[in-house]
């Protein structure tokens, strides 16, 4: 019975938190909260007290009710569940103080919970991964490490579009929260002032004609004040670039919201066209000279990025080619001068 009550209590906490967020700056009466969620005033009081113990500053008045005054810059289960519940496309939100990889956990969850979509967030990853199996540094308490598990009803041929969706959504979220201008370096990095601040890794489970699920991992350097010497010239954090600490919950909420906004592009060609135009405008690769790694270090100029996410390049000899996947080094970035 205790486990059932705890889960119910966590759900009520997340609902109360989201309601107070929606009315931030204005008090909400205990009676209104009680009636909205069909619970007793005592249950509401317990939810408020539980939120306070997690660091939420909630003012209370016998006549006016409860008002959310300040949120802590900590990630926790209540905030994650509330963000997932408000998304409109996620069934669950899971938080982990430490885990091997949010993508790995999302895939485990997908196999054990057929039909469900969810958000996974960790304070620290011990085996975070980027593309080509590279390790993603996941320092505790400073970055934002999340995975989105979604189950779109699409053909496998459209699954690769999700990397574009994630890139545009995350770029817009970073810009909205920080005021910085974020660019997208093909195929899966976000660049600010010439330095990498975010990586994206999408993974697919599919049959011949249908997608079982997609997992999209997003790692953002948020509040790191120091970075290892070997990557300081290549990477940065939002804190280092703005000179101020960034609220990670606010950024997470923005990423999830913008991802949901563009998610329909996986199925809707009109929305795909609009999203693709945003992607092209934010591209750090389009029109640039690049070095195609893995192709004998051939250089080429990027003529276009197709809606399918391919690079259309032209080589010095006039030959043109579509690049479906791989690594590129952009002239002016990545020490390619």
UniProtKB/TrEMBL annotation:
Residues 30-49 bind DNA. Biotin binds at residues 101-103, 125, 129-131, 196. Residues 81-267 form the BPL/LPL catalytic domain. Its EC number is 6.3.4.15. GO terms for cellular component: cytoplasm. It comes from the Bacteria. The keyword S-adenosyl-L-methionine does not apply. Acts both as a biotin--[acetyl-CoA-carboxylase] ligase and a repressor. Belongs to the biotin--protein ligase family. This is Bifunctional ligase/repressor BirA. It comes from Acidaminobacter hydrogenoformans DSM 2784. The lineage of its organism: Bacteria, Bacillati, Bacillota, Clostridia, Peptostreptococcales.
């Amino acid at each position: 019975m205790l486990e059932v009550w705890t889960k119910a209590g966590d759900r009520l906490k997340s609902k109360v938190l989201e309601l107070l967020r929606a009315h931030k700056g204005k008090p909400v009466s205990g009676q209104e909260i009680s009636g909205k969620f069909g619970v007793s005033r005592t249950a509401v009081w317990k939810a408020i007290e539980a939120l306070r113990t997690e660091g939420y500053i909630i003012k209370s008045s016998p006549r006016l009710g409860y008002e959310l005054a300040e949120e802590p810059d900590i990630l926790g289960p209540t905030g994650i569940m509330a963000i997932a519940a408000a998304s409109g496309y996620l069934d669950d939100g899971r938080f982990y103080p430490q885990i091997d990889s949010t993508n790995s956990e999302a895939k485990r969850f997908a196999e054990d919970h057929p039909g469900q979509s969810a958000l996974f967030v960790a304070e620290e990853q011990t085996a975070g991964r980027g593309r080509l199996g590279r390790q993603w540094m996941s320092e505790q308490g400073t970055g934002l490490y999340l995975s989105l598990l979604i189950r779109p009803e699409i053909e496998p041929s459209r699954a690769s579009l999700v990397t574009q969706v994630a890139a545009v959504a995350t770029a817009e979220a970073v810009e909205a929260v920080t005021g910085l201008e974020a660019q997208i370096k093909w195929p899966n990095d976000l660049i600010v002032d010439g330095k990498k601040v975010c990586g994206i890794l999408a993974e697919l489970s599919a049959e011949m004609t249908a997608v079982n699920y997609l997992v999209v991992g997003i790692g953002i350097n948020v509040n790191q004040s120091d970075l290892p010497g070997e990557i300081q010239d290549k990477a940065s954090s939002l804190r280092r670039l703005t000179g101020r600490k960034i609220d990670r919950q606010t950024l997470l909420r923005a990423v999830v919201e913008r991802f949901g906004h563009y998610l329909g592009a996986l199925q809707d060609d009109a929305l795909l066209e609009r999203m693709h135009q945003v992607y092209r405008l934010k591209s750090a690769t389009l029109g640039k000279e690049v070095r195609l790694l893995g192709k004998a270090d051939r250089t080429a100029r990027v003529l276009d990025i197709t809606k399918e996410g391919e690079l259309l390049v032209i080589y010095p000899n006039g030959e043109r080619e579509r690049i479906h996947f791989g690594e590129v080094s952009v002239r002016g970035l990545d020490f390619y001068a």
